[in-house]
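G., the chain you wanted modeled:
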Amino acid sequence: MTYIISVSRLKNRLENNRDNTVIVDVRFQLTDSEAGRKQYIKDHLPGAVYLDLEKDLSSKAEKHGGKHPLPDMTTFARKVGNIGIDHNTTVVIYDQANEMFAARLWWLLQCLGHEKAYVLDGGYEEWLRQENPVTDQMPVLEPKRFRPILRDEQTANIDEVKEKLENDTAIVIDSRERERYLGNIEPLYHKAGHIPGAKNYFWKDVLNKKGSWKKDEVLREHFSAIPKDKEVIVSCGSGISACPNILALKMAGYDNVKLYPGSFSDWISYEENKIEKKEE
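Predicted structure as tokens:
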């Protein structure tokens, strides 16, 4: 099953069935938390609403739990309804290009039981490249009542990660770039390296050389070393860039896939946890 929608398909959908489609802009920059909202205010896809990574798609960071903890799901479900989404709504999410933030919202909607969510291939830049219009007009929202169907089995906490690594009952993926995985660089956190036992699958490797999402059959080959009958727990730095890998694993036919929301930033918040720097 694909969770990616092309610009042409979105354009066709809007021309024929706009009332049942909500477009969500999630552009964001980790180094400038206001940049995405400013981009949205300047211009966006017609009818698009904005959700902020830190204000809407995460909760406040504390001592443990990672840099971008999951939002309170009851509050988040209410926000989803307030922007016009229910279970009959098709949701199309876009980033600046094919970034990691659209997949975070896609995954959160999956956790609420919403199946009709798609990531726009190429995002805002591809929409513009195909000479489609943008606007600075704010949409008129029509709130709906969204009834969440919570899927707690979509996440794994730190205790579960430890247990399953120790018992070899799950494969843990680290979605960060190789140099961070190996601990050669670490621009964000006070410790470098990775969770012992984690395998490195850089999230950008689910994209082709042109920056578009790879097709299902190519993704199956990409993840072919991972048995489909084994649980896969996906991590990254703080539960954001893991989400494109989760989406790609689902497209490749993996069903038992979980997010470790706190990821490496949660792992290193416990001084007793060991860190590895070699390839695994």
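The CA atoms of residues 196 and 274 lie 7 Å apart.

Shout if anything looks off.
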